[in-house]
Amino acid sequence: MQVFNIKPIKSRHILASVTALSLVFSVLFLPACTEQIASESNDLYENELYDIEATSPAENVIVAVGDVMLSRDVGAIIWATGDPRAPFLETVEILEEADITFCNLESPFYEEERLNGDRLVFGADPEAIEGLKYAGFDIVSLANNHFGDQGTDGMSFTLSHLTENGIGYSGAGENEVTAREPFIIEQNGVKFAFLAYNDVKSAIRKGYAATADRPGFAVLSRSNLKQDIQYAREKAHIVVVSIHWGTEYEETPTERQITYAHLAIDYGASLVLGHHPHVIQPVEEYNDGYIFYSLGNFVFDQMWSEETRIGLIARIFFENERIEKVETIQITIYDSHQPQVSDGDF
Ligand SMILES: [Zn+2]
Prior knowledge:
Elements: H1 11-16, E1 23-24, H2 30-39, H3 41-46, E2 59-68, H4 72-81, H5 92-96, E3 100-105, H6 129-135, E4 139-141, H7 151-164, E5 168-170, E6 172-173, H8 176-179, E7 183-187, E8 190-198, H9 201-205, E9 216-217, H10 222-235, E10 238-244, H11 255-267, E11 271-275, E12 283-286, E13 289-292, E14 297-299, H12 306-309, E15 310-319, E16 322-334, E17 338-341
Parallel strand pairs: 2-3, 2-14, 3-4, 4-5, 8-10, 10-11, 11-13
Antiparallel strand pairs: 1-16, 2-15, 6-9, 7-8, 12-13, 15-16, 16-17
The structure holds zinc ion.
């Protein structure tokens, strides 16, 4: 497992080159897919999957961004401007034009009283959800190290607040079973299953992980990944796995990130969306899938370095269940809250 297997799309590279990168996938693995469809046809017939084979190709685009934090300085700006849309005003067109739009939601919502602490205790005003709706987010990951910052009530409220506002979530639930369930979105006849896991150990020690009878996030483990992806593959054509992991401010993925990313693809996922380091990490094409080790920040107030102000918008183009190509668009965050597409001259 060597890092040199990874395509070296590092932030400086991206800064120095064009903002969009296209990688066209070979069609050579199509026969393999067809074989798998045939061998699983009994199960899949019951779930009414694979109707997409017979018709003209269904084209779908997932747009994914990294950490979105609507608390701290971002929250203060939303409060001061009175406009929850403020963080998304400059990127809304790219976000909402996608068939499915994803982010890691790094801040839970508080219901009435905010639990306070130092600057590392996040809690977003419930009204801030209007920004996520405006930007067209369909699905967010909640499996991250801040999900429990507003306590058990804050976790439960965040789950219900998202549902009531028509935004899906994965990687968290009222108990461990529901936290590990895939969230399925059907677009143009294709079913996408979203799973999400936290791998930041400090949050597990704080008790933010879901248990048999307590809300929380899903924990990354080999067995969870294998079981959940296999289950999701029975329910959907495409499995997307979001993982909150790695080392903060490190531009290189750890051996552990690489191992688990490869496992996710080996178990049947098509796409791994990583976040938490707050800086961009490489993108890897691995077998039939793509791995974004860290998409970096998207809405965050870490203005103290060039690297923490830069993030990626990933666009993944699907034809039926095959990834046709991926693109990345670089953003730079301005004024502690607002990403704008950047030309690399920043
Ligand atoms: Zn984090």
